[in-house]
Amino acid sequence: MRPLRTLSTVLEMIKIEHTLFALPFAFLGMLLAAGGWPPWRTVLWIVIAMVGARSAAMAFNRLADRRIDAANPRTAGRALPAGLVSPGAVALFTAVSAAVLVLAAWELNPLAFYLSPLALAVLFLYSYTKRFTWAAHLFLGLSLSGAPLGAWIAVRGDVQATPVILALAVLTWTAGFDVLYALQDLDFDRRTGLFSIPARFGVRGALWISGAFHVLTLTLLALLPSVYPGGLGTPYWVGWVGCLLLIAYQHWVVRPGDLSHLNAAFFTANGALSVWLFAATALDILASR
Question: What is the DSSP string of 74-97?
Fold first, then answer.
């Protein structure tokens, strides 16, 4: 039973349920690549690859940051600094998760397999970026941008303008909400010499930069129908308007002097945004077949 308890603790530590942020964008890349729903075998291995990638990335992040987390009152209760799980167990979980990603890529196609080590390198590099650059938020965005790009490659075995535009939209969307989330650690980051946009530019500067990232996200999503073969119709644009409203909501509730709604902005709005855009685009593509 102890191994099961350890696994349960690790899964809670990495917030496995937050795979919801990236998985709809992977499905979006998959649908766009296939022009519809691909074979179920492809869907299965894409899901396995996504779970493996995110699990490896989050576990490695917790491992790399365990001493930083122990010093931060907000994160001191996490499993590793609290001693609820050993570094060795987390390292083993990371290695197994990375192997799952590589296996899934192997089962999909040669290009996906050849690029899987690069994907892991980007995922693992992010954990160290806050030690040397305030652009760490962009590296997190780069990590999540692999979801739609990787899913497109999984289906088609190539790279075109469509997945690149979508990946850039995910990059800027992620960077934008991560800047907001980092506001709660502004004082700690400054005190300990860690790098972030809030620590470098302050609360107001960070809010403006986050807003600029999200304006770019909406612009890129608006460009997507023009680069996608055959274009996208009204359901997609309904999805785009939903993204606009959810992003506006985040920036409405997170204001200088009032960060009490950060969790609502981070988890609720962003989880809803990814699901909403996928559902709208899926309706557009599947209804037009």
Answer: TTTTSTTTTTSS-HHHHHHHHHHH
Parse the chain into domains and list their residue ranges: 2-287
> Over the Cα atoms of the chain, what is R_g?
19
Cα 34 from Cα 286, distance rounded (Å): 11
**Cα-flanking dihedrals φ and ψ of residue 254, to 5°?**
-105, 110
Q: Which CATH number fits domain 2-287: 1.10.357.140, 3.40.140.10, 3.40.50.2000, 3.40.50.2300?
A: 1.10.357.140
Q: What is the pLDDT of residue 217?
A: 98
Q: Whole-prediction pTM value? A: 0.93
Secondary-structure breakdown of the chain: helix, strand, coil percentages, each rounded to the nearest 5: 80, 0, 20
pLDDT digits (tens, 9 = 90+) for 43-93: 999 999 999 999 999 999 999 999 999 999 988 888 888 888 889 989 999
C-alpha 251: how far from chain center: 19
Q: Which of 20, 46, 36, 63 is nearest to 116 (CA)?
A: 46
